[in-house]
Amino acid sequence: MFNIKVDVIPVGTGQALKLAENGDVDVTLVHARHLENRFVREGYGVNRRDVMYNDFVIIGPRSDPAGVRKAKTAVDAFKKIALNQATFISRGDNSGTHAKEMETWETTGKKPSGSWYLEAGKGMGTILIMAYEKGAYTLADRGTYLAFSGSRKIDLPILFEGDPVLFNPYGIIAVNPARYPHVNYVKAMALIDWVTSRQGQKIIKEFGKDRFGQPLFIPVAVTNP
Questions:
Q1: What one-character-per-residue DSSP string does 184-195 give?
Q2: Is the pLDDT of residue 224 over 90?
Q3: I want to staple 144 with a disulfide (CB 3.0 to 4.6 A). Which of 2, 41, 124, 207 is the partner?
Q4: Domains and CATH numbers, the chain
Q5: The pTM is what?
């Protein structure tokens, strides 16, 4: 009905929200709930909807010099990495993954620093390749990890997963037309409605299943898409 062509700008959550705060996009799909809440609370966005989720995983060298496999929680895993000063690569880019990483470090009570802690300021794909090349640990979203490990660009196993604190929900938000009258709010809402519809959610449910043996995301906007 709307015949919408979507121009996608693939950037981390921090940069995506900055583009939206500047009124440079009509809609944003991101994954850092506290940043999303602030974005809406400060009047930049409206009509946030839950879309899907996956989770974060801690990956690293098979030799696992920090003993992350033995960790009981994500916080414990990070403490082991810091205690052993095992090389850790951070995105360092205010993305959703970086936000989760910093939240986890804060819970450990330790501020990561020193030659073992590398802030790259790069996207997830680049970080995974760097971690592989340096035999380092990093925090990754499962979807990107599966995409890269499936294409054999990296050989780093998942060493820790399953802690509820590593839950990774995604939300979609329209840019507020009252603040930015030039945005295409009608089409933004049409996209949001489609992504959260049964049809859109079914596509999300199946995405990646054939290639990776599991979907990259779990849809949450509708029941049984």
A1: -HHHHHHHHHHH
A2: no
A3: 124
A4: 13-53+168-219 (3.40.190.10), 54-166 (3.40.190.10)
A5: 0.88
